[in-house]
Design goal:
Layout (H helix, E strand, L loop, with lengths): L7 H13 L1 H9 L10 E6 L4 E6 L2 E2 L1 H5 L4 H4 L3 E6 L8 E4 H17 L7 E5 L4 H13 L2 E4 L6 H11 L3 E5 L1 E4 L2 E4 H12 L5 E5 L12 E3 H5 L11 E2 L3 E7 L7 E6 H15 L7 E4 L6 H13 L3 E5 L10 H9 L3 E4 L1 H9 L3 H4 L8 E5 L5 H11 L6 E4 L33 E4 L11 E7 L9 E2 L3 H9 L6 E9 L5 E6 L3 E4 L2 E4 H8 L5 E11 L3 E10 L5 H15 L8 E4 L13 H8 L16 H8 L3
Parallel strand pairs: 4-17, 6-7, 6-8, 8-11, 11-12, 16-17, 16-18, 18-19, 19-20, 29-30
Antiparallel strand pairs: 1-2, 3-13, 4-5, 9-10, 14-15, 15-23, 21-22, 22-24, 24-25, 26-27, 28-29
Bound molecules: 5'-O-[(S)-butoxy(hydroxy)phosphoryl]adenosine.
Length: about 625
């Protein structure tokens, strides 16, 4: 069994050992899994390339560890408990035995459609059990899954399909989200119409009774999967073979495909799941994320299943049919560990205490937060109103690139201070640097957050563009992984992650590049130039503020609505600017670089100290922008 830290002393010793002897430490963790062949070496690394290999030479299949190895001990335990969007619809429960059978059937169906080891399969699905099943089916046969959040646009989907040269798309016909019935397959059809030449088939899961358009590449899930054998031998993978690609935004326009591999990701997600959530046999664990994001990959699917947990998966939204839905589900399924995002906490807090107070939340013994900094007010509400001051809160800091939780309190073991992610996981060596790359030592200091030693679930490359991976994460500071975040270390050494220091925004826990949104806005025919920044937003954490220069031929509400529509078309509704201000110019340096620092301050209504603007090419524009600001 994966090691579970049980006391503060134990944490201190375990952490120390993981630093003194990382290879010995991770080899011990890895020993608890099923391998077809053990590793030749635990770790080979060079951050300059970067070249990172964990458990080199080892052979395994992650689904044997998620499923097969649990059959003898917990075959009849529920693995995935699925709660539908509509509370009146039927809950679905898959025991480990049933889930293994379902995964094998799907795996055989994929094979019958010609999917082989190494092929890329893109997902565009709502939160239905078939999504988890098909992701695992890919892993079973060694195909590389790339899940695209079903809120992205056809263009964004096509871009990802083409970047990955995917052979297949797996989608549903419709997505039930709150009162909305969203035609998902239609978006896939639009993406196909834009040109996705590598796609051979589209496997369509039926999620409604409505008719849809059909093409000769389309195959119904129920036709293809029915009748397949419930046994499928697991493809034997190298520890460093690709497990999945997940696209995420960066500071340049094009999202990058973060690559995770089989062995290290397995060991790390299981270890962090068991320890951060202190999961005990019989607990019911619920993470409210979408599998379209890394949180869903690591802490709905892989981590919990590797640890033999019961993982709740929810199709719907927090406010449907009413603002009590999360708490109703907690009571209904007797949830013990609950993991959600600050944006959801703030939105529900705004609806008032009467919603959670209607339900019995006494089984809850741990609350988790992820995706963005949690403000003190939301932390306190979560602690009092949901946790009744008896459930420790873990504020977990990590990233798509880190694969798993990096910095977090351990519930009931280390202390918890509002807004502090606090302490590193064993094996994680965070440091703070100043802008020149000097170590910022001591406590009560701020700096740029870097990690100075590899951990098993770290990204290996960005798909198809290793140089971009090197430049983004490993070239900013020598021999360091650079996170892109700024952080503070308090008197007692706890870490608080303050936010991004690059041109990346965090909107409702969703990562969005400013350049990506600008590129979309610039697609509008009357827009000449734009600059996008994040600003503090009460519910979303950050809102999107766009400054646009137009050709003057159009204005008013029409223009604003059209720009929003263009962004929705190019990226998806999650990237829609909250505020759009038409300006006649943007503050630029003499070399033509937009001074975003100034724009950020104006958007935040913090214009008292704009710094020296006299070196700008066009200092007069600043006053104009402030006057017209929203
Ligand atoms: C960025 C990563 C982690 C999975 C979901 C988001 C921010 C994440 C925290 C936290 C403060 C946080 C960081 C990070 N972030 N968790 N607990 N406290 N900030 O993954 O989309 O890759 O975004 O989210 O800025 O760099 P992601």
């Amino acid at each position: 069994m994966t090691y579970q830290i049980s006391s503060l002393e134990d944490y201190k010793q375990t952490y120390q050992r993981s630093i003194d002897d990382p290879e010995g430490f991770w080899a011990d963790q890895a020993e608890t899994f099923t391998w077809r062949k053990k590793w030749d070496s635990v770790l080979e690394w060079d951050f300059r390339e970067p070249n990172i290999k964990w458990f080199s030479g080892a052979k395994l299949n992650i689904t044997e560890n998620c499923l097969d190895r649990h059959i003898a001990t917990r075959g009849d335990q529920v693995a995935i408990l699925w709660e539908p969007n509509n509370p009146a619809d039927e809950v679905q429960k898959f025991t480990y035995r049933e889930l293994l059978a379902a995964v094998c059937k799907c795996a055989n169906a994929l094979k019958a459609l010609g999917i082989e080891k190494g092929d890329r399969v893109v997902f565009y699905m709502p939160m239905v059990p078939e999504l988890a099943i098909a992701v695992l089916a890919c892993a079973r046969i060694g195909a590389v899954h790339s899940v695209v959040f079903a809120g992205f646009s056809a263009q964004a989907l096509a871009d990802r399909v083409n970047d990955a040269s995917a052979k297949m798309i797996i989608c549903s016909d419709f997505n039930n989200r709150g009162s909305k019935h969203i035609p998902v397959k239609k978006v896939v059809d639009e993406a196909m119409a834009k040109g996705c030449p590598s796609i051979e088939n589209i496997l369509v899961h039926k999620n409604s009774n409505e008719d849809i358009e059909w093409s000769d590449k389309d195959v119904w899930w129920h036709d293809q999967v029915a009748g397949q054998s419930e046994e499928c031998p697991a493809e034997i993978m190298d520890a460093e073979d690709l497990l999945f690609i997940l696209y995420t935004s960066g500071s340049t326009g094009k999202p990058k495909g973060v690559v995770h591999t089989c062995g290290g990701y397995m060991v790390y997600t299981c270890f962090t799941f068991k320890n951060a959530f202190q999961y005990k046999d019989g607990d019911i664990y619920w993470c409210t994320a979408d599998i379209g994001w890394i949180t869903g990959h690591s802490y709905i699917v892989y981590g919990p299943l590797l640890a033999g947990a019961t993982s709740v998966m929810f199709e719907g939204v927090p406010t449907y049919p009413d603002a009590g839905r999360f708490w109703e589900i907690c009571e209904k399924h007797q949830v013990n560990q609950f993991y959600t995002a600050p944006t959801a906490i703030r939105a529900l807090m705004a609806r008032g205490d009467e919603w959670p107070n209607k339900y019995d939340l006494s089984p809850l013994k741990l609350l988790g937060s992820v995706g963005e900094p949690i403000n003190e007010e939301a932390w306190n509400w979560y602690n009092k109103t949901i946790g009744k001051e008896k459930s420790p809160i873990i504020d977990t800091w990590w990233q798509t690139e880190t694969g798993g939780i990096m910095i977090t309190p351990l519930p009931g073991i280390t202390d918890a201070k509002p807004t502090y992610a606090s302490y590193p996981m064993p094996g994680v060596q965070p440091v703070l640097l100043d802008a020149d790359g000097n170590l910022v030592e001591g406590n009560n200091v701020e700096g740029l957050l870097c990690i100075k030693f590899p951990w098993p679930a770290m990204l290996r490359t960005t798909y198809g563009d290793h140089e971009r991976c090197r430049q983004t994460y490993f070239s900013v500071f020598k021999d360091m992984y650079f996170t892109g975040d700024g952080a503070r270390r308090d008197e007692e050494g706890r870490i608080r992650v303050i936010g991004r220091v690059d041109d990346v925004m965090n909107v409702s826990g969703h990562r969005m590049g400013t350049a990506e949104v600008e590129n979309a806005i610039n697609e509008h025919e009357n827009v000449i130039e734009s600059a996008v920044v994040g600003y503090p937003h009460e519910i979303k954490g950050q809102g999107i503020y766009a400054y646009v220069i137009t050709d003057g031929s159009k204005g008013g509400e029409d223009l604003i609505n059209e720009i929003r529509a263009v962004v929705t078309r190019e990226i998806g509704p999650i990237a829609k600017p909250d505020k759009i201000q038409v300006v006649s110019g943007l503050p630029k340096t003499r070399s033509g670089k937009i001074m975003r620092r100034i724009l950020r301050k104006i958007a935040a209504k913090d214009t008292s100290n704009l710094g020296d603007v006299s070196t700008l090419l066009n200092p007069e524009i600043v006053e104009e922008i402030i006057k017209g600001s929203l």
